[in-house]
Amino acid sequence: MTLAHKTPQVTLEPAFTPEGGKLLPQPLRHLRDIRSKALTEMVLPNRRTENWKYSSKYLKLDESLAPLTQGSGMAVGRAVEGAYRVVIRNGVVDRESSVLPDQKGVEIQRFTDLDEVTAQSVARKLDTVIDNSTTQIAALNTARIEDGLLIRVAPDTSVDHPIYVQCVTDAQQSGSNYPRVLVEAGNGSKMTLVEEYLCEGDEPVLVDAVTEMTLDSNANVTYIRLCMEPDNVRHVGATGVRMADGANLDSHAIGFGGDLRRHDLQVRLEGENGFARLNGIALTQNRQHFDNHTAIEHVVPHCDSEETYRCLAGDKSHAVFNGRIHIHKDAQQSHADMNNKNLLLSTNAEIDTKPELEIYADDVTCTHGATVGQLDETALFYLMARGVDRQTAASMLSMAFVHELVGQVPLEDVREVVDVRLNQFIEASFKETNA
C-alpha cells in the first residue's frame, strides 16, 4: 500500500501582516486591520490550487519581500503629454509628481486625504468587486494598503484627457508594495484610464495591485493596463469591474513577462444592454512566466461580450491563459465570443490555454476557440522566396500576430511605447532562437 503524495502547505509569513496604515482615515484603517487579522496563517496557493497550478511555484513570498519598498530619489515614471498623470510610488500617491485635473465633475483623491464620510463610503466598497476566493493574493492588498487612489466621475461628465496612473516601484532593496485604485463612473460618464507599472532598480520585489471599478448606467470606460516592469518584479494584479445597464467597457491589457506575472480580470454585466470588450497580449522570453485569468459574468439578459487574447512565448518561458464566461440562468439573449491564439517562438517554450464556457440559459449565442502553434512554414517560405531572410521573416510574422491588437489601443502614446518594447522583445527572441 502506498500513501498518496500530499503537497505541503505553505502559509503566509507573519511579517506580511504587520501593523500599519497610520495615515489612513479610521474607516479604512479599521478595514485594513480586519483583513490583516483574517490573513493570519493563510495557506498560500500551491500546485493543487486549480487556478494557481501553473503559477504557484513562481510566487515565493519569502520574508525578504515583506517590508514596504522605499523611495530612492530616482526619477519617477515618464512624462506624458496631453493627459492627466497620477504617480503612485511604492504604493503611496506622490502628489508632487502628479498632474491632476481641475475639470468640474472629475474628482481624484488620495485615500489618506479622505474625510470621514467619504472614507466610510470607500471602505464599504473595497473588496466588493473582486472575488478574493479566486484571486487569493488580492486579499493581501487590502491588508497592507498605506494609501490608495479614488477616481470619481460625475454623471454625464466626459473627462477631457486620459488619466494615466503610473505605479512606480523602487527596487534598490527587496520589499513589496500594494497599489490600490477605486473608480466610480457615474451615469452617462466617459473616461479613459491608463495604468502603467514601472520599476527602478533590480532587487527582487513584489507588486500586489488591485483596481476596482463600478460603471453606472450608460457609463463608458476605456481601460488600458500596461505591465512594463523588468524581470526582478513579481507582479500579482487583479482588476474587477461591475457594470450597470447600458455600460460599456473597452479593456486592453498588455504585459511583458518576468519572474512572475499574474493578472486576474473579472467583469460582471449586471445591467441589460451592457457591452464589454477584453483584449489582451502577453509576451514572455528567457525563463519568464505570465498568467492571465479572465472571468466574464453575464448576470442579466441582453448583454454582449467579446474577448481576444494572444500570447507569444520564446526560449524556455511559460505563458498561461484561462478565460471563463459564465452565462447565468436569467441571462437570456446573451452574446459572448472568446478567442485565444498563442504562438510558440521556441520548441522549449510552453503555453497553456483553457477557455471555459458555463451556460445556464438556453437562448444565447456563445463561441470560444483556442490555438497553440508555431510560425507557419508556408508563410515563412513565401517571404523568403521574395528575398527576406528567415530571421527577418519570422520577426515580421510574429509582429503581425500581435500588432492587430496593439493597433486597437485608442491612444497613440501607448501604441508607441508598446511598439518599442515589442520590437525589443521580437529582436531578442530570435537572437535567442538562433544562438
From TrEMBL:
One of its GO terms (biological process) is iron-sulfur cluster assembly. InterPro entries: Fe-S_cluster_assembly_SufBD (IPR055346), SUF_FeS_clus_asmbl_SufBD_core (IPR000825), SUF_FeS_clus_asmbl_SufBD_sf (IPR037284), SUF_FeS_clus_asmbl_SufD (IPR011542). It holds the Pfam family SUFBD_core. Residues 173-401 form the SUF system FeS cluster assembly SufBD core domain. PANTHER family: PROTEIN ABCI7, CHLOROPLASTIC. This is Iron-regulated ABC transporter permease protein SufD. It comes from Halospina denitrificans.
